[in-house]
Amino acid sequence: MAQPEVVNTAEEGEDDMHERAPLDLLQVGFWSCLLFAVAAASATLAWPDAGGAAGLILLIAMAAGGMIFLLWILRGAGRRMGLFPDRGAMADAMKPVMPKHNWIEALDEAVMIADRGGAPQIANEAYHDLMSIALLGQADLTTPVSVDRMFSASPGLAAPVFRLSKAAKAGEAHRETLPAMTLGTESLPVQFEVRVAPLKGGRVLWRLRRITGSEDATGATDMRALYVEDAPLGFFTAGADGTVSYANSWLRDLLGLPETARNIRLDDLMRPEFVKMLRRDRKSGVPGRADIMIRSRDGVEVPVQTITTWNGKGADATGRTVVIANSHSLLEGEGRMLAASASRPPSVDGDPMFDDAPFGAARLEGNSLDGAIITDANRALMNLADGGASPGTRFIDLFLSEEGDAKLREKLLDAIDKPVGLKLSGEDEKHVNVFITLDGRGQPAVAYVIDMTEQKALEMRLAQGEKMSAIGKLAGGVAHDFNNVLTGIMLNNDHLMTMHPVGDPSFDNLKKIHEFSVRAKDLVQMLLAYARQQTFRREVFEPGDFLSEFAILLGQLIDERIDFNVVHGRDLPMIKADRNQLETAIINLATNARDAMLMDGGRGGSLTITTSRANEKDAHAQGFRFVEEGEYLLIEVEDTGHGITPENLKNIFNPFFTTKPKNLGTGLGLSTVYGIIKQSNGYICPISEVGKGTKFQIYLPALRADEIPEPEVVEPEQLNEVPQPVDFSGRGRILLVEDEDGVRAIAATQLKSRGYEVEEACDGEEALEILEEDPGSFDLVISDVVMPGIDGPTLIKEAKDLLGNARILFMSGYAERDVAEKLDGDREVAFMPKPFTVKQLAERVKQELAVRAKEAA
Fold first, then answer.
1. CA–CA distance, 590 with 583 (Å, rounded to integer)
2. Could you give the CA distance from residue 287 to residue 337 in angstroms, rounded to a whole number?
3. Less packed terminus of the chain by CB within 10 Å, N or C?
4. Residue 339: per-residue pLDDT
5. Contacts for 719 with CB less than 8 Å, ≥ 6 apart
6. Reduced to 3 states, what is the DSSP secondary structure of residue 285?
7. What is the DSSP letter of 178?
């Protein structure tokens, strides 16, 4: 209804306000006097002689009485002039008079007249009918209530009703389209358009028109699709020309679009190439997925995933798009999604927004979340719940109550209007986010269930990786400090063994110290391997020949009760790795398998090492999706032991974790294997089943043809060379920089005893002063890497102009690659890992000085 019509009708209502007037004493006196005058005039007509001069006046009075009598007959004119009260006026005068507006009953919408403060005065029958539906007996339906009270059970309506009330108080006309809601026992959502307009006398006209055509409100083609307005995901519809006809509140908030936005096009929301991606499946009619960037109102692009379904052909085609604003996919793959959608044609009377949604959705019925029953569930929820979300099932029974039923109910209450993480019951552990919306009566209406299993697994792997990294740093730091101690022990022990040779009473004790030092060195190497900080000597080799030769040695470590086999696949790729480190990894796996099969009186079993060519798809098929794309050499170490429980399988790579009896294992074997494989840029994947055995899959990167070097040619005369004794004595000036006094003292003593001139420095600052006093005079600089103040690499950088042609030899408990990262690369350096023996030190010094002499020549 147009506004001018409202104003004219209001003016008629103003006239009706004066239709009645209360009877007063003056009016009663007037009528009494008039009646007396008529009686006197009648007497004058009957007796003319008795009237005299006053008879004329009485006749005039009678004529006036006759006219008034005629007006009395024509009561309508008397009432309009306010001259005559209606029948019963005396009784009505004692009651408060309410304005009567008969014209509002003629309107085909709910109408209520209130004052500017919102207090209702009168309403038509349509308004009373709406009240009876919305309030369900909660109020006296004979007296109209305000609009905000009528819709108080729907919190989402508070904002638009407030704006309407504000306009009413200000005496301004205003219009609002309320969000979709459910009223009474209706299962379908409805919408209302509400208008307020001022009337004369400080009153306000409220009009509520129910929207029956979806185009007037949201552009949706099905009233049931209004559920998507409050969904926790984005959704929009667009025509073939790219015009966006509807976007739900989630997407509008993301893009910063007002609710009244019109004439929005896909080109305004994204780049042209992304528009083409959304239209690529128009002809096929099956859902199409795309990873695109969507542009907000302030120009910022947000990465989203879209799933678009097209209906219709040509210019009448309409696309419906679901928008997911995260990087992970809620589906297992595009092929699965397309196949599932194509296998089920859209139902004629169904709701595509509900049935074909890529997330679980259920319609609920019940007075509380505890007793809410599923009345309908879409295909996605049925797949998530493994068919357990059938109609009639209690919604709460879909989820695991790990912390008790009371805690589960508490979490479901928290899921109202916000997502809450839960686990679905069933054989497979599935993590989901649950979002529940209520109807106008505060009862559960719709639940959305979004699969978060992959994201949860990624978070757990990230947390496990961070924990392993922290433990690795700790292990590396401990190993580095222990290496300094071991170096001092081994150098001093070697010195004492030269002074107490074989036959000396102390020789046996010194030899035992040496043996314990070697065991401690192996233990430190395990820690460094786990921390991925040990020194690698990588080389290119063929894994088949390597394992065939190594299997001979490995067979001697395996008990005779175990059937040991090595099976090679065809077309094995070449790899680049440290042979010794790879041998250590395989030995640890084999000995663990041996112990598992012989523990607790076991009779043995079989141990098989298998090699083959593989790629990331083979790993993904086993559930190891963290293996990156590429070609790999796959080494499988499989036993028939008692297997590993799932609880222990999560911790097997943690250092010092072991399931062996006390004093039968250090718990560093598998952590060492993990560090070696990861430092080789590979992956190790355990597969185990209790009672059947365990299999470890090792994926090592395969080399491409262009990465394989040409084989070295060995001259025939080199094959007949006889090794000659090595002389470790020599000549040269050496600067020894070491912050550990014990290590520095014994190393300097041993070098001096072999003929070298040694200058000592306790740190980088002292070494820099020595070089400044006598630049270019040293043949070799031996320096520790980690020192307080100026460390080794920093010393070489700052003193590069003072070194002359001196060779550089670093010694450290850390890996060589960590040292190389700290240098500029403009000077060649050598590296010697700690701990080392006197023989290794003397041999390395001899080699470096020989290289310097060769360069000088």
1. 10
2. 8
3. C
4. 31
5. none
6. coil
7. P
User: Is 497 strand, coil or helix?
Assistant: helix
Instruction: From 592, 460, 587, 452, select the one nearest 525 (Cα to Cα).
Output: 587
Q: Bridge partners of 820?
A: none
Domains and CATH numbers, the chain: 18-92 (no CATH), 102-212 (3.30.450.20), 215-354 (3.30.450.20), 359-451 (3.30.450.20), 539-707 (3.30.565.10), 733-856 (3.40.50.2300)
How confident is the model at residue 685, as a pLDDT? 92
For residue 629, count CB atoms less than 10 angstroms from its CB and return exposed for 0-12, middle for 13-18, buried for 19 or more.
exposed
Cβ proximity of 194 and 208 under 8 Å: yes
**CA nearest 319: which of 248, 244, 426, 226?**
244
- 531, 530, 558, 535: which is closest to 668 by C-alpha? 530
Residue 796, both tokens: 């070489």
| DSSP 8-state symbol, 805 | T
Q: In what order do the strands lie in the sheet with 807-812?
A: 757-761, 733-737, 780-784, 807-812, 830-833
pLDDT band at 637 (very low <50, low <70, confident <90, very high): very high
**Strand order of the sheet with strand 110-115?**
120-123, 110-115, 203-210, 192-199, 174-177
Token pair listed for 333: 């793959």
- As a whole number of angstroms, the distance between CA 396 and CA 409 comes to 8
The torsion region of residue 537 among left (phi > 0), alpha (psi -120 to 50) and beta comes to beta
Nearest to 186 by CA among 162, 166, 210: 210
376 beta partners: 363
CA distance 527 to 621: 32
List the strands of the sheet with 288-295, edge to edge.
264-265, 243-247, 234-239, 318-324, 301-311, 288-295
> Does pLDDT of 6 surpass 50?
no
Q: Is residue 55 within a helix (H) or strand (E), and if so which, with residue range?
A: helix 54-73
Q: Under DSSP, is residue 853 helix (H, G, I), strand (E, B) or coil?
A: helix
Q: Which pLDDT belongs to residue 13?
A: 43
Strand, helix or coil for residue 373? strand
Phi-psi region at 578: left, alpha or beta (left = phi > 0; alpha = psi -120 to 50): beta
Closest CA to 700 of 614, 808, 596, 812: 614
Q: What is the 3-state secondary structure (H, E, C) of 175-187?
A: EEECCCECCCCCC
Q: What percent of the chain has pLDDT over 90?
A: 9
Q: What percent of the chain has pLDDT over 70?
A: 70
Is residue 343 helix, strand or coil? Answer: coil
Residue pair 422/450 in contact by the 8 Å Cβ criterion: no
Report pLDDT for 26. 56
> Which residues, 6 or more positions from 312, have their beta carbon under 8 angstroms from its beta carbon?
240, 318
Three-state secondary-structure class, residue 806: coil
How many other CB atoms are found less than 10 A from the CB of residue 587?
A: 17
| Edge-to-edge strand list for the sheet holding 360-365 | 373-377, 360-365, 444-451, 430-438, 420-424
Give the whole-angstrom CA distance, residue 594 versus residue 604. 8
How sure is the predictor about 402, in pLDDT bands with cuts at 50, 70 and 90?
Answer: confident
Cβ count within 10 A of residue 203: 17
User: Which of 10-24, 361-375, 664-678, 805-819 is the least confident region?
Assistant: 10-24
Task: Kindly report, residue by residue over 697-709, the tens digit of the pLDDT.
Answer: 999 999 888 887 7
Mean pLDDT score across all residues of the chain: 76
DSSP 856: H
Q: How many angstroms separate the Cα of 284 from the Cα of each of 288, 338, 354, 418?
A: 9, 10, 21, 36
φ/ψ of residue 58, rounded to 5? -65, -35
Phi and psi torsions of 346, nearest 5° = -65, 140
Angle, in degrees to the nearest 10, between helices 543-557 and 579-598: 40
Least confident interval from 27-31, 364-368, 606-610, 793-797: 27-31
For residue 250, give the amino acid letter. Answer: W
Are 59 and 126 in contact by the 8 Å Cβ rule? The answer is: no
